[in-house]
Write a structure and sequence with these properties.
Elements (H helix, E strand, L loop, with lengths): L4 E5 L5 H8 L2 H6 L8 H13 L3 E8 L2 E10 L4 E8 L8 H17 L4 E7 L3 H9 L3 E4 L5 E7 L1
Parallel strand pairs: 4-5
Antiparallel strand pairs: 1-2, 2-3, 3-4, 5-7, 6-7
Length: 154
Amino acid sequence: MDEEIYLRLVDDKDMKLLFDWRNDEVVRKNSFSTEPIDWEEHVSWFKATLKNPSVLFFIMMSGEQAVGQIRINLEVDNTAIINYSIAEKYRRLGYGKKILNLAETELYDRFKNKYILKALVKTNNIASQLAFERLGYMCQNTEQYILKTYIKIL
């Protein structure tokens, strides 16, 4: 992690990269929708997401290398729903915590107001649970056995 690490906005040239990341076996296992996504479905979702003013969508870069993605859906009640993933070759290197930290800074710098950050994490996704916990997110048990809800007030 010696390179400069930063977030940049997703743009049209990221469509294929995000398609490949979304269909990664581990990403699908940790997603709510575990089936592979076909290209046409991805293109439709991608274009709609980029047009949505309530979505902040970033690629985390380490120097010139794309390391992961993070999407923040801004809700009307000042809740920000977080979804992120790290590319396979960068997993287990601390990038999960780093991408969350950068996203928190970005959100605060843009809006300067309080947000309730929220993430739903599958119980078998230990790496994401640890990333959230290490940044001070509180785990709220859910009645569903497959999910944990992490909350932090920014």
